[in-house]
Amino acid sequence: PSPPVQVATAPVMQDNEVETVAAERLRIERGEGNEYLQVGAFANLESARSLVARLSEMTPMEVFIQTDAAAGLHKVRVGPVRDEALARELVNSLESARLGTPFRVRI
Fold it and tell me: What does the pLDDT average to over 60-82?
């Protein structure tokens, strides 16, 4: 018999995580709060800390972990972003270092 076909599935967001993302997007649309770059979200705190250490060497902006206990995630964020040119430079550096593409959030 032929090997089973594996189907990739998108990660499923929990209700509280969907609400958090929706609230952050609403703040972006309204221009409220401070803007940050979210670089990663990890279930493992040590993985988040490792990324913080690496990012701290790449940018003068503050790098921190915001824990979302309800979702069980440690979100690595940079900012607040007040200098658009510096933010673009960081995004380019992250992409070049193959650390992914961060997305903007407002908190």
Answer: 94
